[in-house]
Design goal:
Length: 220
Amino acid sequence: MVPLSFAGHQFLALPEAALFWPTHGALLVADLHFEKASWFARFGQFLPPHDSQATLDMIEMLVERTGARAVWSLGDSFHDADGAARLDARTRDRLSALTARLDWVWITGNHDVAMAETPGGRRCAEWQVEGIRLRHEADPADEQPEISGHFHPKLRLSLRGRHVSRRCFVGSRNKLILPALGALTGGLDAGHGEIRRVMGPDAMALVPVADRLLRFPLGS
């Protein structure tokens, strides 16, 4: 875990694509996309069917490592409105046990906004904590500090003739975008014009490695 300062608060960035807020004992995650594989299977495209279990394994591990008392999920937690209903019984029971034990908040995203219910926890469109707005998609018109997801940012580099890609955070003066945590989520280049549009000219890709945070300016 690597220290990351944002909007006057101290966080810890995890290489596994999550953010920990020690003051609140909160693990922030984004774009879990539970049941993505089963959604594709309905249309005849078969992906490895264990994505929900793998994503939940990761969350349980991060909760254990950080000692988190809360999980705040920043939207697109399920791949579609029926995703929760397609969870197998064992995965649903594990997820329900976590949401009962922790202060679990589901912020709605564009994929799961129409969900009828979730396995425990509480839902909201947006949430504000100590002057920081938590939402799914960054709002370029909002000057208030915000933490969001949605874009699945990845940093792509060419090193010694090899192309390297890894999930990254994207930060600016008043915005922080989390990478996608879901096991089957793809990624958008952190320097993509749409990310730069919402983040502004001071946007930087942030990559936690070992004991430090690498910063890569994304330009205008």
